Amino acid sequence: AAPALQLSGDIKPEVRDRDAPTRIRADQLEGVNQREVIATGRARLTHGDLSVKSDRLRLDQVLNELTAEGTVRLERGKDVVEGPRARINLDTYIGEFEAPRYSFQRELLAVRRPQSRPLQALGQADSLSLEGPNQYRLSNATYTTCLAPDPDWYLKVRDLRIDYDRERGEGTNTSLHFKGTPVAWVPWMDFPLADSRQSGLLPPTLGTTSLTGLDLTVPYYINLAPNYDATIAPRWMGRRGLQLGSEFRYLESGGSGKVSGEWLSHDTVTGTGRGLFSTRNTHDFGNGLNAYLDFSQVSDRDYFSDLSTRITSTSQATLNQQLQLNYAGLPWLSSSFNVQRYQTLVGESPYDRLPQVKAAILVPDVSGVSVKMPLEYVKFGHPTKDEGERVVANPQLSLPLRNSYSFFTPKVGVHLSQYELTRRTTVGSQSVQRSVPTLSLDSGLYFERDIDVDNKDYTQTLEPRLFYVKTPYRDQTKIPVFDSALADFNMSQLFAENSYTGSDRIADANQLTSAVTTRFIDNSTGAENMRVAVGQRFYFSDQRVIMPAVLDSGGNVVVPAETRREGRIADWLGAVSGRVARDTWLDNAYQYDPREHRTERAVLALRYQPGASQVASVSYRYQRALLRDLDISAQWPLGGGWYGVGRYNMNLRDHKLSEAIAGFEYKADCWVLRTVWQTLLNTKNQRNNSLFLQIEFNGLASIGSSPVQLLKRSIGGYTKLSNNSSGDPVFGTSADE
Amino acid sequence: CLCIASLTACGFQLRGPKPLAFKTIYLGINPYSELNAALKRQIHTSGTTEAVAAATEAEVMLQVANDSQEKVILSLATDGTVREYQLRRSFSFRVQDRKGREVLSLAQINLTRDMTFSDNVRLAKDQEETQLYRDMEDDLVQQIMRRLAAIRPSAP
Question: What is the DSSP letter of B8?
Fold first, then answer.
C-alpha cells in the first residue's frame, strides 16, 4: 500500500524579500554612513521575515552582508538557528553558521496534502551553510524529526543537504542512531523531508519464514509524477536467493491501473528462475464505454505457496486473465465483450470464455410494463471436457405496481438456449435446444411505527413479502454444464427464480416463498441500525432437475451431485444484523432444516470496537457437511504504548489451523515497532511460519509495508498506529492487498 | 406473535407517502452506471422529486465520497484454497444545497454478503458473486433513499 496518486500537480510560490527594509536595534549603534553599521548589546536586525539577534552585529551595507558574534539566534519563518558566530548575505540568503543548533519547520501546501502536518526537524552540526532561502547544507550534522529533548533516534550525517523547495534531504556517510546506538549505515541517502509522497526508502521489513529462510525486503519508492509512481523492492531470501519486485501505478482522468512483477533469477532450492507478472487496469473512454484488464501469470504452480506469505496469493487455485469491454451508452442497453481464461495452479482448469458477448435490453416503462431482454453468446473452451458455443436469450415482461405501502409485480419470461458443441464427452448430441417459461408473482407490504430507543426516535418497519414462482420441468440431463452450480441458500437466493447460477440448468419450480423483515431506522439520519429477517419456502411439487456431479479429467467426482429435495417445506432462514449497542455490531444468520430437525448453516459474528486501535471480533461459521470455522481477531491496547494484535482462524471441522497471527506493536513518541508472527496453510498443504519485524521512524519514512498489510487484512477494524494524530496521510486503503 | 397477528394493535400502520424535502436532485454518480439508473427510478417513483442531469438546475446535489468493493477471504479449505469469501461494498456520500451547505453530512453505508467458494465451479461462483453484488446494490439504493428521506427542508 503506497500513497495515493493524485491528478493535479502544484507550483510552489516564490518568496523573496530583496527589497524589504532592514531595521537594526541595539543598546549601542555606530557606523559609517552608507558603508557599515555596528550594533552592540542586545542587538537585533530584521529584514523581511528574517530576524537575527546577537551580542554584536555588523552590517556591511556595500555587500549587504551581516556578521554576528556572541550568542547568535537567527529566525526566518519558523526556522531557528543558534550558534556563536554567523555570516549571511541579506540579498541572497547565502552565508555560514558556526557550530549551530537548528530547528526547521515548514508548513506544507495544505491544498495539495490536506492531511499532512507541519514538518519539523532538529539537530546540530559543526557548521551550517545557508545556500538560499530554502536550502541548507550541514557538515557533521545530526538530524531528527523526533522533537523530544533527548531524541530516541537521529541520523548522523557527514554532509547533509536540506532542500525545502524539493522537500528532500540528501546525505553522505549517514548512520542511524537508535537509543544512542548506531543501527544502520549507508554511504549515501536521499530521503523525503515531508510525510508525503516523495521518492525514498520505505521502512525495510526483516523476517524469517520456514520456506524462504531469512527474509529481508528493502523497498524503494519512486515518485515519478503526481499521477505516476513506482516501487522497487529487492528481497533477499536466505534459502532461495535475491528476488526483485517492482510495481508501477498510474492514475489518469479516464482510468487507473498497476503493473507489477517479481523475478527470482535463480532459486537455489529448485534450481530454476521464477517469476510473476500481474496487471490490473480500468479505463473509461466516456460515453458509457469502459474497459477492464486483469491479467496474472506465474512461472510455475508452486510460485505463491513457495514464496508468498500473503493468504490472498497462497490460497489462489486459478489466476484470472481477462479483458472486458463494457458499453452502456444508450439508456436501454448495457452490453459487454469479454475474453477470459485462467492459469490453473491447483486442481482442474475452469472453462475459457473466448469470447463471451452479452447484451441486455431494459425498457423500464412501456405504458407501465417493464421489458427486459438479456442475450448472451459464449464460446466455452477446455482441454478435455465438452466444448462449444451457447446462445441464451431470456425475454421477460413484468408489470410493477407500487404505492407507498405496497408492491405487486407479476412477471413472465422464457429462457431460450441453443448449444452447438464441437466436442462432446458427456452423454448427448452435438446440438441441443431448450426453452423454459417462468411465471412469478412478487408482492409485499410496508408497515411502520415510531419507537423510542434510549431517548432517540426510531422508525421500526415491518415488511412482509410473498413470492411465487412457477417453472415447468424440462429434461436437461443431455445438456452440458459450463457455468452452472447450485447457489448458496440465503436471503438473496430466497427471492430468485432459479436456484442455480449460470444458464445451463433451469430449476423446475412451483413454490411460494414468504419472508418478513423488520428494520430499525434512526429518524434523524435515516440510517438503518438493525435488521431482522425471517424467511421460508413452501414447495407444491417435487424437485426433478438435479445438478450433476462435477468430474475432473480423470473421471473422479470433485463436487458431488445435488441431493434431491424431499418434503414440501424448505429450510427456515433467519438473519439479524446491525449495531446492537453503541460499540457493538452483530451479524448473525441461521438456516434450519425442519424435516431433519437440524441446523444447516449458522453464522454468529460479533464485533466490539470502542475506539481507534481497539477492536475485538469473534465469528463462528457453520455449514453442515462443509465447514465449521472459528475466527477471533483483535487489536487491543495493553497500556504503556503497547498494543497486542492477533488472529486465530481455525477450521474446527478438520482440526486445521487456517491462519494465525500474533504480535505486538509499540508506539513511542517518534517511532513505532511491530513484530508479527504468522502461520499460514498453503495450497501445497504446507504450513508456512513467518516472523516479521519492523521499526518505523516517524517523519523519516512512514509508508506502509507488509506487516501492516497483513494486519489490515486479517484484523477487521485494524487501525495503523501512527504518531500522526490527524490520520495517516499516505496509507490509503487498498482492497487487493 | 400477538403483535404480528394484529399489527395495528402495537402501533404498526401502513406506510404513508413520504415526499422528499426537495423537488430536484443532481446525482454525482457515473451517469452510465446501474446505480445511477436505479436511484433515478426510485426517486421518480416518489412522484414529487426528479433527478436532473445538470447540477446547476438542481436544488440539492448528491456527492459520492467513496464507493468501493472488496472481496475478503473468510476461511480456507483443508487444501489451503478459499472456501468462503465475504463480499463488501462500502459507499459514503453527502448532500449539499445550491449554496454549498451540507443538508446531509457524510453518510456511510457498509454492506456485506458471505459466499461459499470452490475453484471447481469457478465460473458459476463468479456469476453468483455478480448476483450478490447486485443484491447489495438494491439494498444500497433502499438505504440511500431512506437517508434522503431523512433530510429536513432547509431555510431558503
Answer: G
Shortest distance between the Cα of A119 and any Cα of chain B, in A, equals 28
Residues of B within 8 A of A317 (CB-CB) are 81-82, 119
Q: Could you tell me the three cell numbers for A637? A: 491496547
Q: Name the minimum distance, in Å, from the CA of B18 to any CA of chain A.
A: 8
Q: Are A629 and A618 in contact (CB under 8 A)?
A: no
User: CB-CB: which of A350, A526, A603 is closest to B149?
Assistant: A526
Work out the number of other CB atoms within 10 angstroms of the CB of residue A182: 10
**Amino acid code (one letter) for A510:** N
Which residues from chain A sit within 8 angstroms of residue B18, using beta carbons? 404
How many other C-beta atoms lie within 10 A of the C-beta of residue B152? 8
Sequence-ordered list of residues with C-beta below 8 angstroms from that of A728, at least 6 positions apart, any chain: A115, A702, A720, A722
Written in H, E and C, the secondary structure of B83-115 is EEEEEEEEEEEEEEECCCCEEEEEEEEEEEEEE
pLDDT tens-digit readout, A232-278: 999 999 999 999 999 999 988 888 999 999 999 999 999 999 999 99
| CB contact set of A283 (below 8 Å; sequence gap of 6+) | A254, A255, A257, A290, A291, A292
Query: CB B110: neighbour CB atoms within 10 A?
Result: 12
Considering only CB atoms, which chain A residues are within 8 Å of B110? Answer: none
Joined together, the cell numbers standing for residue A86 give 554567523
Supply A728's cell numbers: 495517516
ipTM for this prediction? 0.92
C-alpha cell at A699: 517523519
Helix (H, G, I), strand (E, B) or coil at A240: coil
| Interface residue B35 vs chain A (CB under 8 A) | no
Nearest to A498 by CA among B38, B84, B128: B128
The residue with cell 500522526 is A724
Closest CA to A612 of A698, A528, A726, A706: A726
H or E element, residue A491:
helix A491-494
Angle at A488 between CA A486 and CA A491, to 5 degrees: 130
User: Cβ distance A124 to A138 under 8 Å?
Assistant: no
Asked if A174 contacts A199 with a C-beta cutoff of 8 angstroms, the reply is no
Is the CB of A629 less than 8 angstroms away from the CB of B84?
yes
Residue B64, pLDDT score = 94
B66 CA to chain A: closest CA distance, Å? 11
Cell of A295: 491479467
CB-based contact, B125 to chain A, within 8 Å: yes
| A180-193 residue pLDDT tens | 888 878 888 877 77
Please tell me which of the candidates B17, B128, B147 has its beta carbon nearest to residue A404. B17
Nearest in space to A293 (alpha carbons), one of A302, A304, A301, A284: A284
State the amino acid at position A336 in one-letter form.
Answer: S
Answer whether A398's CB lies under 8 Å from A410's CB. Answer: yes
Distance, in Å, from the CA atom of A204 to the CA atom of A220, rounded to the nearest integer, reads: 9
Q: What is the pairing mode between strands B50-52 and B24-28?
A: parallel
Cis peptide before A729 (omega within 30 of 0): no
- Biggest CA–CA distance in chain B, Å, is 64
CA-to-CA distance for B58 and B40, rounded, in angstroms? 14
